[in-house]
Amino acid sequence: MTEHEEIEYHEILITMLEIIWGEGFLSPGGAEEVALLLAGEDIKDKNVIDIGCGIGGIDVLLARDYGAGSVVGVDIEQPVLDHSIARAETEGLSDKITYQLVEPGPLPFEPASFDVVFSKDAMIHIPEMKGPLYSQMETTLGRENADRYVEIWRSMNVVIESGELRPGHLRAIKPDR
Predict the structure, then answer these.
(1) Number of structural domains, the chain?
(2) Which residue segment(s) compose the domain that 34 sits in?
């Protein structure tokens, strides 16, 4: 996050969201949603990047419960990373989980640096999905699935901006492999 942008996730908001969604989480779903996202996937001993890691609850799950070899959490706000770092230390996972402040846009990692890319909610903060990310999604998921997810993200932005976000609003279909 550049010095000219305002911090969105300040201490009071982080505290409030943890009260609502559970310790370590800034959005709905928690451990149950991570289990659904990872159903049938084996990340044991894999190098994982968590894009938009928030306050680190997911990263702890990835390392502790799913056996990821390493997790690199990236976010654009230092306050959430401070919470993440403290959580990893408290859980005794600082040797497996690291965090990095990044600017929005391309990430500062070499291609193929990670075995698994995980991102639970960061996409809802990207206002325009048609662009370089879209072409990667289209190549990976196919045009139909890419278009469906862009529409979900656009709808989520409307819901978020209205202040009407509820856990039941989050629905998607995992693409066929």
Answers:
(1) 2
(2) 1-119
